[in-house]
């Protein structure tokens, strides 16, 4: 899975640590998401999208191998 989290963080001038604190995840989680090394829960996906303001489909790019 690919994400546009880094792009949206840059729009709001947020560090990975800032976003981790805002959405309630532990250290390195956002970095792993941005590198495609972690598949978030639906709850985390929703919290990140709600905080950064895009739709979930705009923020997370799923391909056939993710299903």
From TrEMBL:
Residues crossing the lipid bilayer are none
Q: CDD domains under this entry? A: HTH_XRE
Residues covered by the HTH cro/C1-type domain: 5-59
Name the UniProt key words of this record, in alphabetical order.
DNA-binding
Q: Does the keyword DNA-binding apply?
A: yes
Q: Which GO terms describe its molecular function?
A: DNA binding
InterPro entries linked to this entry: Cro/C1-type_HTH (IPR001387), Lambda_DNA-bd_dom_sf (IPR010982)
PANTHER family given for it? TRACRIPTIONAL REGULATORY PROTEIN-RELATED-RELATED, TRANSCRIPTIONAL REGULATOR
Which protein is depicted? Answer: Putative transcriptional regulator
Q: Which organism is it from?
A: Methanomethylovorans hollandica (strain DSM 15978 / NBRC 107637 / DMS1)
């Amino acid at each position: 899975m690919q994400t546009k989290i880094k792009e949206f963080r840059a729009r709001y001038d947020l560090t990975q640590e800032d976003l981790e604190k805002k959405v309630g995840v532990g250290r390195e989680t956002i970095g792993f998401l941005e590198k495609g090394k972690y598949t978030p829960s639906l709850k985390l996906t929703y919290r990140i999208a709600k905080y950064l303001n895009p739709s979930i489909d705009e923020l997370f790019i799923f391909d056939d191998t993710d299903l």
